C-alpha cells in the first residue's frame, strides 16, 4: 500500500488552459470581460446597447455561451461585430478548453475588447476562471434583492455589478437599499451600476467606464 | 451540476498521479472541499461513483472533508466563521475582512497498491 500526498487543485487542468488563454489574450492586447448572470436578467440586451454605442470607437468581439441555441449570437451578429457561438449542449458553464477553441475562430489582432457572455446561471460559471480582466455580473430587479446573499460567489468576484431592469422596481418588491447594503458587505470594492435597457438609464455611464478602463489597460 | 466537470477533472488528476506512482489499484482518496467552493459533496460523491466505473479508482473510498468558511477582521484582527456568507466581524462589526478558508477544492491524499 502506498500513501501519496497529492495536494493539487482539482481544476488544475482548467487553470492551466486558462493561463495559456490569458497569455495569448494579453499578447494580443485584448481587454477581456466575463459577463455573467442568471438566465433572463438582460445580459444580451445590455451587450447590444454597449456594442451599439462603442463599436465605432472600440474593436469588439463576442463569445456567446449558450446550451443549445444561436439566438443570442444572432442578436449580436446583427450589430456587425464578430461573434463565436459556443453551445455547451447541457453544460452549465464555459471553461478554458471552450474558450481556447472559440479564440481560434476570432481575428485577435483586430480586437481590443473581447466580451464573453457566459451561460445564464448564477452558480457554476463563478467557479471557472476564463482569463478575464473583469467580471461583470448582472442582476435584474425581477429576480429579487435576496440573490446576492443567496448566490454570493459570483457577486464577490465581480469588478462591476449591474442592477438591470430598474424601470420595473415600482412593479416589484425589490428593496434597493437592502441590495446595496448586501453588495457592500459581500464585495465593498465592486462598482455598482443601475441600468434599464428600456429607458437607457445607466448605459452611458457603463460605456464611459468601459472605455476609460480599456484605454488605461491598453494605452494606444 | 458543475460537479460533473469538477469530478472529471479530479479523476484525471488522480489517475495521472496513480500512473506516476505505478499504482494498479486505488483504495482511498481524500479531497478538501471548502464551504464557499460552490461544489456539493453529495453531488461529487454521486458523480464519482459513476465516473470512476471501469478505472483503477472504481470502488475506492472517496472521502470529502468539508472545510469551514472563516475570515479574519482587518480592523480588530480576530478570526471568525462566516455564516451564510456575511464576512462581517462579529466582534467590531468591521467589513474589511479577508476570507481565510472556504474556497478549497483539491485532492489532498490518495492510497493504493
From TrEMBL, chain A:
Keywords: GTP-binding, Hydrolase, Metal-binding, Nickel, Nucleotide-binding, Zinc
Gene3D superfamilies hit by this protein: P-loop containing nucleotide triphosphate hydrolases
Pfam families: cobW
GO BP: protein maturation
Cleaved signal peptide residues: none
Residues in CobW/HypB/UreG nucleotide-binding domain copies: 32-193
A molecular function (GO) term: nickel cation binding
The UniProt record lists the keyword ATP-binding: no
Family: Belongs to the SIMIBI class G3E GTPase family. HypB/HupM subfamily.
Annotated protein name in UniProt: Hydrogenase accessory protein HypB
This protein's encoding gene: hypB
TrEMBL record, chain B:
Record function comment: Involved in the maturation of [NiFe] hydrogenases. Required for nickel insertion into the metal center of the hydrogenase.
InterPro entries: HypA/HybF
Binding site for Ni(2+): 2
Keyword Transmembrane helix (UniProt): no
Keywords of this entry: Metal-binding, Nickel, Zinc
PANTHER family: HYDROGENASE MATURATION FACTOR HYPA
Family: Belongs to the HypA/HybF family.
Residues holding Zn(2+): 73, 76, 89, 92
One GO BP: protein maturation
Origin superkingdom: Bacteria
GO MF, one example: nickel cation binding
A Pfam family this chain is assigned to: HypA
Protein name per Swiss-Prot or TrEMBL: Hydrogenase maturation factor HypA
